[in-house]
Each structure stands twice: as C-alpha cells, then as structure tokens.
Amino acid sequence: MKRLAWLALIAISGCTTVPPTNVHQPMTARPAQRFTAPVGNGAIFQAGYSKPLFEDRRARLVGDTVTIKITESTTASAANSNKLDKSNDQQAAVTGLSGLPGKSLLGLNLAATSSTAFSGKGAAANNNAFSGSITVTVIDVMPNGNLLVSGEKQLAIGEEQEFVRISGVVNPSFVDFSNTIDSSKVADARIEYKSSGQISEGQFMGWMARFFLNVLPF
Questions:
Q1: With contact defined as beta carbons under 8 Å apart, do 111 and 90 qualify?
Q2: Which tens digit of pLDDT belongs to each residue from 101-144?
Q3: How far apart are alpha carbons 201 and 127 in whole angstroms?
Q4: Quick one: which of 106, 24, 13, 29 has its CA closest to 62?
Q5: H or E element: which one contains 48?
Q6: Where are the alpha helices (DSSP H) in the chain?
Q7: Are 168 and 186 in contact (CB under 8 A)?
Q8: 0.70 exceeded by the pTM?
C-alpha cells in the first residue's frame, strides 16, 4: 500500500501544473441562442441564418470573439539624492581673573569643533515590453454595452508549455471594422505570460529550502 502511495506521489509531482491566473473568469463562453431556427423551406434564403442588413462582424454579444493586439511597453525610473552638511566651531579663552580665585586658569584656551555630513543616493529603473495578438471571447455584456472579454492561448514547445492570457473591458466603439482592438484601449486589462515545465520549475526554490529559510533565525 505504501509503495502505491509513493508511486502516486511521484506521478503527481511529475505532471505539468497549470500556473494560476488572475484574469477574469471564465475564459470562454458559449453563445446564447438568439432564436429558434425554423425548418428549412427549400429556398435559398433561410430566416434562421439571416443577419441584419447593417450588421457588421464586430463583437457585440456573449460568445462573440474579438482580436486584441498586445502592444504593451512600460518604462519607469526614479532617482533620489540627499546631502546634508553641518559644522560647528566654538572657542573660549580665560584672559584675566583679577581678585578672584583660580588664577591658575589664566591663559587657558578652550576650543570645540563638531561636524556632521550625510550623503545618500538611490536609483531604480524598470522596462517591460510585450507584443503579440490573441483572440478572446465575450463572456458578458454590461448594461452600458461594454464587453467583458477573456481568453487564453497555450503553446507547447518541447517539454514547456507557454500560457498567454488576457481579459478586460472593451468599448465596442473602439473595435475597428476588422474586429480588432489594441490592448491600450482595453480597460481593467489583465495580461499574463506564464510558463510551466522543467525550465520554469528550475527557477523556483524547493519547498523544503523555503521552509528552512523561513524558520532559521540566521
């Protein structure tokens, strides 16, 4: 029994795990049935498959698809510089003690000098670029007509699996006639590029090493 448990554990650990996601769920939706198609009448024109005369191919209903061009490029930088200088110079001298005790202090000079200096600098920079395209599905239509879209693309390259995910809110008026929209025009956009496999797993610290790293005081 123990041997079977160990084999099951090894099999589970060897399986490729799907990385978690933060995009809107679900990532696809079946289109709602608009009407019941009538029985074919033998004519070329079939009312059940007709489209309105002025209706284009842009997405507008649940289950429709729209292509998003991912053109994300962000650049951020920050620099700080602080400098503080402070100096003090004090002097005192005893020149005369006529008629007073303590004449041994005559000619005594006192001097005190203090200085403080502080200097600090900091800099940070971050550059990101992500480009590509993905077709997503309309999963909800909001009361104002905006579309909530979500989708995923999986690519298997050898033993690695790449996951491209995106979701957000699309204004139908921003969708062009080719049913395409730029990612910069997607509100509440959530864009992910993750991988799963031996190469990606090799970039993470093992659970036992993380455990000892958290409990050891040194």
A1: yes
A2: 555 555 566 666 777 777 878 888 888 888 889 999 999 999 99
A3: 24
A4: 29
A5: none
A6: 2-14, 198-201, 207-215
A7: yes
A8: no
Cα–Cα distance measured from residue 209 to residue 215, given in angstroms and rounded to the nearest whole number:
10
> Which of the 8 DSSP states describes residue 110?
E
- Going by their DSSP bridges, the two strands 65-93 and 147-157 should be labelled as unpaired
Strand 65-93 vs strand 180-182: parallel, antiparallel, or unpaired?
A: parallel
Buried b (16+ CB within 10 A) or exposed e, 16-37: eeeeebebbeebebeeeeeeee
The predicted structure's pLDDT at residue 149: 94
The pLDDT assigned to 172 comes to: 92
DSSP 183-208: GGG-EEEEEEEEEESHHHHTTS--HH
pLDDT score of 40 more than 70: no
